[in-house]
Amino acid sequence: MLNIENLCCGYGSAMVLHELDLHVNEAEVVALIGPNGAGKTSTLQCIAGHVRARSGSVLFGGKDLGPLPPQKRVLEGIALSPEGRKLFGDMTVRENLVVGGYSRPRQATARNMQRVLDLFPRLSERIDSLGRTLSGGEQQMVAIGRALMAEPKLLLIDELSLGLMPKNVDICYQALRRLREDGIAVLLVEQNLSKALEFSDRAYVLTSGRLAWSGTSEAARSRRDLVESILGHGSAEAQPQEAELAA
Ligand SMILES: Nc1ncnc2c1ncn2[C@@H]1O[C@H](COP(=O)(O)OP(=O)(O)O)[C@@H](O)[C@H]1O
Ligand SMILES: [Mg+2]
């Protein structure tokens, strides 16, 4: 479904992705892991159209996304839940979700919002709360929900578990399981190596903007020592998790 070949991108004179090859099949969960600064966010931003490719190709369902601006990519079926969640803090949960559905017909809003609330029942209780009053876990649910309002075929999630309490990490991963059952593919950037490998079908390891390893997540689990050695000084998982703000 998503097919990236030889992708190079950068900022100004600095190149940060070098000849990346990556693909995602329908209803597949694919993990993109790597140390800080490896180029994970840049990869997702390039797929979503916020960062321009310098060379190489990004095909989605056989169509070249190269010339398409971000909003057209949403219409093609790609939605991003960005690093740091980036909610509208002065808007309610409901309003944040409605914004995510701007590309769909207005009649679809209620149905899609119900699907998000079924996936994350906690958000029903917070539906009229302002974005900035939510805990990190609730914010992540809204960010994923907002992306789902666009009815994507491929969901890009940047740093799913970073800074969340374990309970909320589990809720988000359960949601991914259900999305896969519904046929939605996920490209997941994750610092938590165990979670990423447990829940994904395949994994790519990126270091300094280059592909260092790729294969099935099962293979990565059985060669975890290899993956960790590629990631360098222990896995990124060893980094302390920020305490999550209480709701
Ligand atoms: N907007 C930007 N302008 C300039 N350099 C950037 C920008 N965003 C990221 N970079 C650089 O690109 C590299 C890859 O960053 P990023 O894609 O955010 O990595 P990751 O998500 O794996 O931590 C880093 O060296 C980072 O400093
Ligand atoms: Mg990042």
TrEMBL record:
UniProt cross-references to InterPro entries, sorted A to Z: AAA+_ATPase (IPR003593), ABC_transporter-like_ATP-bd (IPR003439), ABC_transporter-like_CS (IPR017871), BCAA_Transport_ATP-bd_LivF (IPR052156), P-loop_NTPase (IPR027417)
Keywords associated with the record: Amino-acid transport, ATP-binding, Cell membrane, Membrane, Nucleotide-binding, Transport
Matches recorded under Gene3D superfamilies: P-loop containing nucleotide triphosphate hydrolases
GO molecular function: ATP binding; ATP hydrolysis activity; branched-chain amino acid transmembrane transporter activity
CDD domains membership: ABC_TM1139_LivF_branched
SMART domains reported in the protein's UniProt record: AAA
Keyword Membrane applies: yes
Domain ABC transporter: 2-233
Any GO BP annotation: L-amino acid transport
Domain of life: Bacteria
Protein name per the record: ATP-binding cassette domain-containing protein
Organism: Variovorax guangxiensis
